[in-house]
Specification:
Layout lengths: L2 E5 L2 H4 L3 E5 L3 E4 L5 E4 L6 E5 L7 H14 L5 E4 L19 E5 L6 E3 L1 E6 L2 E6 L9 E4 L2 E2 L6 E4 L4 E4 L8 E5 L4 E5 L7 E2 L5 E2 L4 E4 L3
Parallel strand pairs: 1-6
Antiparallel strand pairs: 2-5, 3-4, 5-19, 6-16, 7-15, 8-14, 9-10, 11-12, 11-15, 13-14, 16-19, 17-18
């Protein structure tokens, strides 16, 4: 799969509509009870960028980006303004934001994760497209140094520590991240309402696995 490591203009994604979706197979039994099963381990996000467009310059920027991606051909980064960092919406990123693993004395490579909690249940979302320069990593309560104590692959979200952490020590991380997506259409229809404004009523994008 081809992926262009470039972000959709954040000024256009701001104001878009979208969020996570799940796939659940529901079978109603003869006695009225249900059997429910999900073939997806992870959710997938969909967005519509059309509502983020505000002027002719935005239309030009959208068309240039769409053409450079070849429509649905190449994936790209997308900033989900409702969920783009490891901490709360109004908080500052800290290396203590997320516990991504516990050391075992052997493993040195770890995937960035974001945990969503509700009551006694939680979901861990793999983060494959962290934003360069935003990632902070720690071991228990000690922050680590990028390029010295660890290295980060911003194309996969993998962290490699210089030394395997001792068993039971918590690997912590804080970060901003993008969503890997592609256009969910091979056609962009625009309507110029005036010399000052344009309209692109439907610009769907969908998350992809990378």
């Amino acid at each position: 799969m081809s992926f262009h490591d470039v972000r959709f203009p954040a000024s256009l994604s701001f104001g878009s509509v979208g969020g996570p979706e799940r796939r659940t197979d529901v079978v109603t039994l003869a006695n009225g009870f249900e059997e429910r099963n999900s073939p997806w381990a992870h959710s997938r996000r969909r967005f519509d960028a059309g509502l983020g467009l505000r002027g002719l310059e935005d239309i030009e920027l959208l068309i240039a980006f769409f053409e450079a991606r070849g429509g649905q051909m190449h994936g790209f980064r997308w900033k989900d303004w409702s969920d783009y960092k490891s901490c709360g919406a109004n908080a500052e990123i800290s290396f203590r934001d997320q516990e991504i693993a516990l050391g075992d004395g052997v493993t040195q490579q770890f995937q960035l994760l974001k945990t969503y909690r509700s009551g006694a249940h939680h979901y861990q979302r793999p983060i494959a497209k962290p934003v360069a320069g935003s990632v902070r990593v720690g071991l228990d309560q000690d922050e680590m140094r990028d390029g010295v104590d660890y290295t980060l692959d911003t194309t996969t979200g993998l962290i490699e520590l210089a030394l395997a952490p001792e068993p039971g020590r918590a690997v912590m991380a804080g970060f901003e991240f993008d969503v890997p997506v592609r256009f969910d259409t091979d056609r962009i229809q625009t309507s110029v309402a005036s010399f000052q404004a344009g309209e692109a009523p439907n610009v769907p994008v969908v998350e992809i696995r990378v």
